[in-house]
Amino acid sequence: MGRPLDLKAFIVRARVLKLYRQALRTARRAPPKCADELWMTMRLEMENNRNCDDKQKIGFLISEGLQRLKVLDEMLDMQGCR
Fold this sequence. Notes:
Layout: H1 7-29, H2 32-48, H3 55-78
Helix pairs in contact: 1-2, 1-3
């Protein structure tokens, strides 16, 4: 395993994982033919930014992810997907 995380890195990691779990839960609500594509897109976004070290960029990505997740959640609500 890697080196131990300092407190700030641990908290950021926890925020990223929480966002990912929320995204997967939201994708489950989508119609079946869309859910797989959503899941793959989310996974790809996480993988593409997996090795990012820039704290400012990570904060931006988390904020952007939360915003995009909120929009997706609202769209699914409008479509009656619960």
